[in-house]
Amino acid sequence: MLQLLIKLIMNIALHHFRLVDTISKEGTLTKAALTLRLTQSALSHQLKELERELDVEIFDRQGKRLHLSEQGHRFLRSAEKILAELKSLEEDINNYKNGKTGKLSISMQCYTAYHWLPGIIKYYKKRWPDINIQILSDATRRPLEYLMNGDLDIGIIRTQMVNTKIRYEPIFEDRLTAVMCKDHPLAKKDIIEITDFHGEELILPLYDPSYQDTPVIESLIQAQQVKPKNLHRIHYTDATIEMVNAGLGITVMADWIVEPYLKGRNIVVRPLHHSVAKRAWFAATCKQTPAIMNFLECLKMYFAGEDMSVEEPEKKVIIQQHATQKQSAIQASAIMFNKEAVAFNMAQDIKDYQY
After folding, report:
1. What mean pLDDT is reported for the chain?
2. 281: closest CA among 153, 139, 173?
3. Cβ-contact 21, 76 below 8 angstroms
4. Residues 285-342 pLDDT 10s
5. Is 258 in contact with 68 (CB distance < 8 Å)?
6. Are 56 and 71 within 8 A, CB to CB?
7. Which of 74, 5, 63, 1 is nearest to 30 (CA)?
8. What is the pLDDT of residues 10-62, one digit of tens each?
9. Which of 14, 94, 286, 325 matches a 20 to 30 Å C-alpha distance to 236?
10. Which fold, 102-353?
């Protein structure tokens, strides 16, 4: 019985379902043939072929008109379900190809601050509401690796890997700044030099030494033989800001990353020397789907100065909705430091290196 059913299904083609559905709606072979853009003889041949395969009559003939038989009604019910599902599938595929539906994963190299992203997401979702956007914070340290593995769609990066599969598109340029407490001695300087980091508690982002390159600040520190008192590596941008705010060290951040943190905190920024301050950022992609290309256009608009502002409460909601994993908020009041020992522990996200 099962083998007979399998054979039956294999021998019924999609045009058979359309044929029965159309004849039942039109009532005659002549009208159905016009709708299906077939000759009447071809349509009649297909119907006989189906009835011979099923070994039942699908239609009862009453003159020129055709009426569904009992088995014909049963066949039509299945045909309607199959054709509706196929139509839905076709619409879904077309929407995906046109960038109207799908999934989009985003990550940014080095920083875990995404205060700039909610405005872009909100603008994008107004135009393409059915695209599911995910912020993949786990890819922060190795975005190009995630990109090559197919786990990331767009990486906002500074480090370029030579690979023909990866497309790099310039997005914007920024400038590095030194961030410190308002009462820090270096706050009195107009421009910060790399040599100013000598003997300081320096806080820099966590990075993987096995990756393609060494961050520019660390390369310059090594080249100029500058020896900070301690070098703290911290993964989370918020945690770095709170350490600086508590007077536990100084850090280096991009101007646009640190800007929202300045209000209400005891921190200031000072520009680094122009020879090291300017950097270029790129959008790295391996695929150029409409959804990805549309998002890249939104990125360019934002960094070109397009108004995509979002109120702070709404920013937090948008980030929470699109983050792939929830992270505990970092509260300054909950962090207790011993300034003498400069001891700070945050699971595996911080590593201290002695020079």
Report:
1. 79
2. 173
3. yes
4. 998 888 898 899 888 888 877 776 665 566 556 656 655 543 333 333 333 333 333 3
5. no
6. yes
7. 63
8. 568 888 888 889 988 888 888 988 998 889 889 888 888 888 888 889 898 88
9. 286
10. D-Maltodextrin-Binding Protein; domain 2 (3.40.190)
- Domains 2-97 and 102-353 in one fold: no
Res 87: pLDDT: 81
Cβ(140)–Cβ(108) below 8 Å? yes
Q: Are 131 and 291 in contact (CB under 8 A)?
A: yes
Residues 159 and 109 sit within 8 Å (Cβ to Cβ): yes
Domain parsing of the chain, residue ranges: 2-97, 102-353
For tokens 């003498």, name the residue: 340
d(CA 229, CA 238): 22
Q: Is the pLDDT assigned to residue 242 strictly greater than 90? A: yes
What digits encode the pLDDT tens for the residues 56-110? 898 988 887 888 999 889 989 988 898 888 887 887 677 677 666 678 898 888 6
Beta bridge partners of 174: 279
Tell the residue number behind the tokens 């002549």, with chain if given.
Answer: 30
> At 42, which helix (H) or strand (E)?
helix 40-54
